[in-house]
Amino acid sequence: MSSDTLKQKFSELKKEGLPALLTYTVGGDPSKDISLEIFKSIAESGADIIECGLGHSANIGDGAAIQDSTYRALSNGIQTDDVFSIIKSFKDEYSQDVIIMTYQNKIMSYGEKNFIEKCVTSNVSGIICVDYPWPTNMSFADECKKNNITFIQLLSPTTSEERLKLILNDSHDVCYYISQLSTTGSKLKVSSDEILNKFKLMKSIAPEKNFIIGFGITLDTIQSIKDVDAIVVGSALCKEISRSVNESQNPATNIGNMVKQLKEKLLA
Questions:
Q1: Is 247 a residue of the active site?
Q2: Catalytic residue at 227?
Q3: Disulfide check for 65: which of 27, 49, 239, 244 has CB 3.0–4.6 Å away?
Q4: Structural domains in the chain?
């Protein structure tokens, strides 16, 4: 898997008139083995691309649901190499592209070169780094590109049109638009029209780029913004993992059922 297969997936879905469905769960939550089963269940239930969180002890961009997942994974001793191992095991069996979402400290402590090399050997297609903004990330982004990995730039409602143009000029094929000013898992506080209008603006600047929309997306809101390139659901899934664990249920089965419902919303 690589930036090429990621680009191909977006192209295939556009021909079908569908957005890509991305899911986010924390690698290693609630355990290494169950996390792998969750990935497999997600893939078998219709997700197009899997986003894997690399747990960080100071994940300031994340709300309560993802923080709970991260705490559970880290408390169980999950290390960076364990997450790469989960991804590699998943990719040995499944074709869905995997994107890692993480924080700069995790990359720096591992070593930028080593991190990229590990992504290559684990068949990671893309990287999102929450607190590594443009243009300071350009050297790392260039190294990713040399290794056929998509570095996904972040955009937000406060990104000016001038800055948008600069970022999109330097960005790879995929970018991530944060739909609202909040942490993950917050109730969607902006209208679908506002999100779609920002999406149209970004597409008018860079029609060849693919934009993932995230933050505040649930079963209740996903259908209203489906006319975009891609949508990611994360906190709702992490919350379901927590509920399943607390009630001694199988999180892989329950997450799979939720992904099927999300996919149905996009096909409706």
A1: no
A2: no
A3: 239
A4: 3-152+219-267 (3.20.20.70)
